[in-house]
Specification:
Blueprint lengths: L12 H30 L2 H22 L8 H39 L1
């Protein structure tokens, strides 16, 4: 028996790398949330925001760079492209997490009314 995959299910290498970068970004956001009490102890508001934003972006950048994404570019152009991609991944991940939390809050609110 021959099992064929549908063309729509096949990921390109770049899509796979971007997915891995998004997972790395999510992991860093969760680690940042766990480390938040320590950052609050420092009582430096900008340090908390810097750690929250830079950790996930740098994780995504490292994954993209290490996997050879955009290898056709070289030097600063490649680094700038991967940095902008990492920032876009971070924004998309944050928006997705906010959406999931809002939907969860709506369902919890609806379930408490009944």
């Amino acid at each position: 028996m021959h099992l064929a995959r549908h063309h729509s299910e096949v990921q390109t290498p770049l899509q796979s790398v971007i997915g891995n970068a998004a997972l790395g970004c999510i992991a860093c956001i969760l680690l940042g949330a766990a480390a938040r009490p320590m950052l609050e102890w420092l009582q430096v508001g900008w340090a908390e925001m810097l750690a929250f934003a830079s950790g996930p972006i740098l994780a995504a950048l490292t994954i993209l760079y290490g996997c050879g994404a955009r290898h056709e570019l070289s030097g600063l152009k490649r680094l700038a492209c991967l940095f902008l991609t990492s920032c876009a991944i971070f924004v998309i991940v944050v928006l997705a997490l906010i959406t999931v939390l809002c939907v969860a809050c709506i369902f919890v609110g609806l379930s408490r009314q009944h």
